[in-house]
Amino acid sequence: MKIIKPIILFTITLSSALLILLLFPNNPSSSSSSVSMSMSRSFILWLHGLGDSGPANEPIKTLFTSPEFRTTKWSFPSAPNAPVTCNYGSVMPSWFDIQEIPVTADSPKDESSLLKAVRNVHATIDKEIAAGINPNNIFICGFSQGGALTLASVLLYPKTLGGGAVFSGWVPFNSSNIEQITPEAKRTPILWSHGLADRTVLFEAGQAGPPFLEKIGVGCEFKAYPGLGHSISNEELRYLESWIKARFQSSS
Predict the structure, then answer these.
(1) Is 48 among the residues known to form the active site?
(2) How far is CA 52 from CA 24, 29, 145, in A?
(3) Secondary structure (3-state) at 93
(4) What is the Cα 13 distance to its own chain's centre?
(5) Which band of pLDDT confidence, cut at 50, 70 and 90, is reported for residue 31?
(6) Which of 107, 193, 230, 231 does the annotation list as catalytic?
(7) Does the CA dihedral 49-215-194-18 come out positive or negative?
(8) What are the residues whose beta carbons fall under 8 Å from the beta carbon of 156, sequence distance 6 or more?
(9) 3 state SS of 45
(10) Among this protein's residues, is 230 annotated catalytic?
């Protein structure tokens, strides 16, 4: 199997979805494009997929036009360049190593590089909390590899956050890490979205998430999208907007 095709797909399919958002925005508001840290009452961290970049994903925020997002601070970091096993050691933006593509429910996991990435996400969260953001107004979202990192980051963070949104992701660690999940972390709600036609991270890999979470006492809303491949649709993002908005808490 030639592995380079799935790697390209990680970037191209998501970028196509973002292009649609740029061409057909839903009454975008310029007030949400840049908000100083001192004015922010909420924080959304978006983690991209393998081989992608943070700036390429920034158009996502143009869809979030509700007034509640005017004081939201967005962050779209880029993963460091690293060799990736599933692409024969080629160096590309990657949060952690991936052993094989397509990713299945039983794919091997590289927990060492994953936990290093989780620590970096936690440092970002800690910085925003220190700046005055209510942890309940902090949301971590991610696509594909970024979705897997999102799940690990919210589950292993010691405090309750506003929520974690996983798009086309998978459970990236083994059961040995379950004992590290605090009672507070188990109260962080999870939104999990996955396309039924995904051939890069198989639907079975996403479908294995909710039972895993239920077993450890974590609430998860799982949404399956017929016909959707390894990409994000406008429908998914519009639902994410309403899902996050419903969980915003007053700063008072």
Answers:
(1) no
(2) 22, 26, 10
(3) strand
(4) 16
(5) very low
(6) 230
(7) negative
(8) 115, 118, 122, 177, 180, 181, 185
(9) strand
(10) yes
- What does the alpha-carbon distance between residue 61 and residue 207 come to, in Å, rounded to a whole number? 27
Write out the DSSP string of 122-183: HHHHHHHHHTT--GGGEEEEEETHHHHHHHHHHHHSSS--SEEEEES----S-GGGGGG--T
- The answer to whether 144 is a known catalytic residue is yes
Q: Which residues pair with 191 in a beta bridge?
A: 165, 221
Average pLDDT for 148-173: 98
Report which secondary-structure segment, H or E, holds 224.
Answer: strand 220-225
What does the alpha-carbon distance between residue 149 and residue 73 come to, in Å, rounded to a whole number? 20
Summarize pLDDT for 44-66 with one digit per residue, the tens: 999 999 999 999 999 999 999 99
Marked catalytic residue, from 94, 144, 153, 168: 144
